[in-house]
Amino acid sequence: MSYLAKDGPIVLLTRSCLSPYVEPVTAAEPGPRVAAEELRNAGLRVTAARVAILEAVRAGNHLGAEAIAAGVRDRLGHVSTQAVYEALNALAAAGLIRRIEPAGSPARYEGRIGDNHHHLVCRRCGSVTDVDCVVGHAPCLEPADSAGFLVDEADVTFWGICPDCRTRDASPA
Fold this sequence. Notes:
The protein is α+β, with helices and mostly antiparallel strands. It has two domains: about 30-100, Orthogonal Bundle (Arc Repressor Mutant, subunit A), CATH 1.10.10; about 115-170, Dna Ligase, domain 1 (2-Layer Sandwich), CATH 3.30.1490. Helices cover about 30% and strands about 20% of the residues. It is built from five helices and nine strands; from the N terminus they run βββααβααβββββα. The chain has a three-stranded antiparallel sheet, with no helix packed on it. A three-stranded antiparallel sheet has the order 4-6-5. The chain has a three-stranded mixed sheet with strand order 8-7-9, with no helix packed on it. A hairpin with a 5-residue loop joins strand 7 and strand 8 (about 130). Helix 1 packs across helix 2 (about 50-60) and helix 2 crosses helix 3. It is flat.
């Protein structure tokens, strides 16, 4: 069984070696071990960069590739921009993260997957916020006319001015 030291690195111990300084790591705890297991389960090779990228996306708020790369570099040192883009594409293709592309903006990445939610985008600063489906259980998955398509996803983006920008607009200059 694996254990995580409360104030140190990950260590492998047997049950007989347990001390008050270690506690069991469970699958519910976020962190490198959980991310590595998710990568393996998705059939992806586990690398320090991929683990750091997955964690950066999940910790961030709709980050772009450049912001993710900067965070990963702060954590690991040098990681090429190309490696970050390739990892983001692999993670999105595996369904571990979601890529969104608000009109007129570079792609953003989020860790909220597996549900039907939409986004609010500020026209001024570009901030993105998650919003649950408008009414009830995924009503927006049923278009008035499907034109013969089997609809499996809806991508709705609401545009407006965020509270921070509205506050700045109302403040005297």
